[in-house]
Amino acid sequence: MTTPTSADGLPPGARGLAMLSVAIGVGMASLDTAIANTALPAIAEQLRTTPAASVWIVEVYQLAMVATLLPFAALGEVAGYRRVAIFGLALFTAASLACALAWSLPLLVVARLFQGIGGAALMGVNTALLRAIFPAALQGRGFGFNSLVVAVAFAVGPTAASLILAVAPWPWLFAINVPLGVGAVWLARRSLPHTERAGHTIDAPTALLNVFAFGLLILTFGDAAHLVGWRQLLPEALGTLILFALLLRRQAGHSAPMLPVDLFKRPLFTLSALTAVCTFATQSLAFVSLPFYFETTLGRSPIETGFLMTPWAALVAVMAPIAGRLSDRYSPGVLGGIGLALLSGGMASLLLLPAAPTPFDIGWRMAWCGIGFGFFQAPNLKAIMSSAPPSRAGGASGIVATARLIGQASGAALVAYCFTLSSSHGTRYALMLGAVFAAVASAASFARLVVRQQP
Question: Which GO terms describe its molecular function (predicted)?
Fold first, then answer.
């Protein structure tokens, strides 16, 4: 079968196969962001390591993804989004097999590092691929489906991990990716479109500076949340600033900078990226803090906790396609603003839970949050991608994924800080912050109504 070339999207049959390959890859990469958290106690016990050391299983994956997203997005503009996506799928699949076969913590951490790199290659270009897969008139629907996959995978990760661990040892959490990944690579080679390539080149020193700058940034977030001493935190913060300054200086004058400062000169793009960071921070504040409340305060089991979180994911699944279709007709600023105002109200409603809440008390509030979150994502994706010129789709796609991961990492770090302030009221503080972040995101979304789109 000949791989299609995209002009204004693919025909329906080829479009469905291409979307399926992207969805499998994005789903696996998003799921593995959340799934390992639940498995850490079991992994630490079986590998005979300490809980503190086992945290590297999660942190190295996040660090690898955030640090390499933008270099892979830039590479996609030069080498083609299709090539980068297939490479990412293949590497993620091979690394998943290595994770399943790892017999020691160091080997598992190295395998997770490569898994994160593979996930970054895919996530860095997947939104740009959607722009090539769907015709302009239907791109909102494509972004809606992509939003559904990412949000649901992140939300159901803990439940899926609990169910797998109930019947199988932890290596199966990673082994299950292998047949899915092989199928996704096969589909991708047959169906992903070729796209026009940019004429500029990739500068290796810029890519390395990007990797170290973003890696140190995430490390600094985590250490700040755990209130490490200033003698450790200050050098990390200064190092981060120096690396970003060197990165900006190195890429100055480049027609397509890897850290896309050219796109941030566009008000619509900047407001949309800010909206994404704040919203994913809100989601992370809820999804990291609420399990502690459900299990520690209410005495629920991990599986019960997963089901209590499910209404959020279920309503995202319902609303994301609807919001995607609406975004083809109505302003993303209005749709996102309304959705995020609902999300802020939903987070506030969780603060008003009774002392002994029933599953219904929790469920309708989580559903309320899911409606708001699901109403935001697809319109915001469309706003980010449409505010960038076609030649910079890779840079815009990289910012989509980077904004999501930085928001999630910031939210998780803030949860740790909240629990450092008070172990008994940490969840309450986190929900308060989440409501504030969602309100700021709603304001940023409505602000897009007064800025003009740039060609």
Answer: transmembrane transporter activity
CA dihedral (295, 411, 345, 401) positive or negative: negative
Q: How many domains does the chain have?
A: 2
Residues 365 and 411 in one domain: yes
Buried b (16+ CB within 10 A) or exposed e, 252-271: eebebbbbbebbeebbbbbb
Residue 208 sits in the same domain as residue 185: no
Is residue 222 domain-shared with residue 299, that is, in the same domain? no
Q: Which residue has the tokens 């409603």?
A: 349
* 372-405 pLDDT, tens digit each: 998 887 788 888 878 877 777 777 877 887 888 7
Q: What is the pLDDT of residues 8-43, one digit of tens each?
A: 667 767 777 888 888 888 888 877 766 776 666 677
Give yes or no for residue 2 having a pLDDT over 50: no
Pick from 224, 253, 282: which residue ends a domain?
253
Question: How distant, in Å, are the alpha carbons of 173, 284, 362, 443 from that of 163?
Answer: 10, 22, 21, 39
What is the rounded (10 degree) CA torsion for 436, 437, 439, 441? 170
According to DSSP, residue 451 is labeled: S
For residues 271 and 248, what is the distance between their CA atoms, to the nearest angstrom?
21
Cα end-to-end span (Å), the chain: 36
Residue, of 1 and 291, whose pLDDT is higher: 291
Q: What is the pTM of this model?
A: 0.78
In a domain? residue 1: no
Q: Are 394 and 127 in contact (CB under 8 A)?
A: no
pLDDT tens-place string over residues 118-157: 988 888 888 778 877 887 777 777 777 777 777 677 667 7
In a domain, 2, yes or no: no
Structural domain contains residue 368: yes
Amino acid of residue 24 = I
* DSSP string for 54-114: HTHHHHHHHHHHHHHHHHHHHHHHHH-HHHHHHHHHHHHHHHHHHHHH--SHHHHHHHHHH
| 4 in any annotated domain | no
Boundaries of domain holding 244? 204-253
